[in-house]
Design brief:
Order of helices and strands: HHEEHEEEEHHHHEEHEHEEEEHH
Low-confidence stretches: none
Helix content: 25-40%
Number of helices: 11
Number of domains: 2
CATH topology of the largest domain: Nuclear Transport Factor 2, Chain: A
Largest sheet: 7 strands, mixed
Structural class: alpha+beta
Radius of gyration: 20 Å
Strand content: 25-35%
Shape: globular
Mean pLDDT: 97
Length: about 350
Amino acid sequence: MVPDFDPHSSPSEKLRKLVHARLVNLAEASDDRLADAIAAVARVDAKWRVAHPINHCAGNAEALALAFGPLKRALPDLERRDVIFVGGTYQGRHYLAAVGHYCGTMRRDWLGIPATNRPIYLRYGEVYEIDPEGAVVQANLLWDVLDVMRQAGVWPIAQPLGSAEMWPAPVTADGVRFDLSDPSQSDDSITQTIAMHRTLAEFNDITRLNRESLIDMPQKEHWHPKMMWYGPAGIGTTRGLDGFVDGHQLPFRIAFHRPQGTFEEVQAERARNGAGHYIRIGDGPYSVTGGWPSVYAVHAGGGFCGLPPTGKPVFMRVMDFYLHHEGLIRENWVPLDMLDLMMQMGVDALARMREVLRR
């Protein structure tokens, strides 16, 4: 069992369908109906947290002006395509969480990224805290802006070690879940995820950080032989435990020195630095964790995204969506605010892009 997760309390089928329909309508609403569409989704004073460079919006008016309005103007035929839509209750708060892509033809520039006049897929991980009537109280939107830069041909950093392709739907084709799941399965899913997190937290990076040790450490007890790890633009997708270690885990741990100790000690140190999870839920064969920020570390090693170490502390806005299949973690989708992380590493990717375009 995971403390503060209640497998017997989850948003109802009715609320799931209602919120999902409102989110679809928000994506597809015309300019003159956009304000009404966002009002239907969220309380007027809802807190919106959106990936860099949007960051924080205090209320629906700011979310409309800074996030959805510009996106809709750039992609006027926008539509929402969820591949995962799940729910649960953590610390008494009710959540709905999604992975998918906004799709549309990029007719105008967006955040300074030049229009392509071709279809663009904006990858997202989104977590919504809702009230008992289904109105959003807080929204956490990790939009993969860096991947749109890739699609527009204005890539600003070193090529990723993993595959840069679009994230697929779950192999089980059951990611959009309106029906309520078996509470015991939901509990088992998030329990397995936190048990895997424990192995990651307690691994000694100081004395054992090498490829062989990472492959052989207890995380292997939780990952499926055909595991897929879907990272954001800049990191990419890997397959199998060895691919995960080579394509992400080892380079990441070399670059970012994290707190050491027991799982509880690591969690406490993260909390002291303002990092941790605001969501830990299971929904049938799926589980979700996330923090704003979730990860605290010191950027003390080189190589990540081809960048040298800064020696500075960094904080990462991250979500993890897991599919548990055949008793193991089969797939892991990882939205991460890469532009925000890169800013902390001394690189303003959007400014770099603007300078290249100016020249």
